[in-house]
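We close this part of the discussion by returning to an individual protein. In the encoding step, the backbone of a single protein was reduced to a row of integers, each denoting a local shape. The sequence in question and its structure tokens are set out directly beneath this paragraph.
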Amino acid sequence: MESRNTFGKNQQQIGGWRMRKLKTALVCGDGGFIGAHLVKQLKMEGFWVRGVDLKYPPFASTKADDFIIGDLRDKDLVWNVIDQNFDEVYQLAADMGGAGFIFTGNNDADIMHNSALINLNVVKACCVRKVKKVFYSSSACIYPEHNQMNPNDPLTSEESAYPANPDSEYGWEKLFSEHLFLAFKKNYELDVRIARFHNVFGPEGTWIGGREKAPAAFCRKIAEAEDGTMIEMWGNGNQTRSFLYIDECLIGIRKLMDSADFFGPVNIGSNEMVPINQLAEMIMGIAGKNLEIKHIEGPLGVQGRTSDNTLIKKKLNWEPTASLKDGLEKTYYWINARIQDNVNHDYGSIN
């Protein structure tokens, strides 16, 4: 296990008095898409930040003051990482990916074991170290499959999570871990915040290798295709989703963490729902290409999903405002540039 831990060195160089003035944060999963962007945001806000992951961010150097390469499934590693009462800990680390990873059934055991073990280790260490506030990233995948069979009218209000019936083992693990963090809040007064993310996308996200989600996958396929040719799509394309641009996600996270007493679980997502056919057509328009869509069999998940933002508007007086098209433009141009540069990246198994 390789580790680059400069916290003690930095503390000596900067001086203990200054370190005590800075708010401290830990981002578990800094090597992943949302985690790497979150570190940048926290640094802009003046935090001293430690990041930890199995890998460095693949598309840009980490902005963390201290980055530890390590496996959060290892209890001893977690105790070394969470070595103080951080002001804020963000638990984003998980074994995850898009439909091609989650819904095949081939990765269920690893998804449940790896992510649950990370959460068990992190929440216990946060409790013992008396961390002041902990954020846990849950997922829209916790919502019952039977409430999302109508692509035009899915039900995803927070209270609709029960009776539970997630459409994947990934969703079941996320729901279990929500209860895990809430149990530590109830029994040990750990200040926990929980958000259910809905399809977050943007530049510097996974776009190749089997773990990418729909926006990145279609940006890649369309960027690689010659005008007038064909791309493939799983299913008939009538299944619906909403997609949240990364900058909006970060605002939602920070709003929840800054709330005086609201802890969730709460949706952080967009309610601009589109059929997947329309998603692909929007990206074609951005690329200036006319392509045929060939519909093939493949893992799909539920027929419809969007974010019900009623609760977040009520509790935090906020909801996303950026349009899907604006986010897709930024994402497409970034992925297209990677393809044009013929850049190859290394992808870890925990992101």
The first helix runs from residue 7 to 14. Residues 7-198+246-268 form a domain with the Rossmann fold fold (CATH 3.40.50.720). The chain has twelve helices and 13 strands.
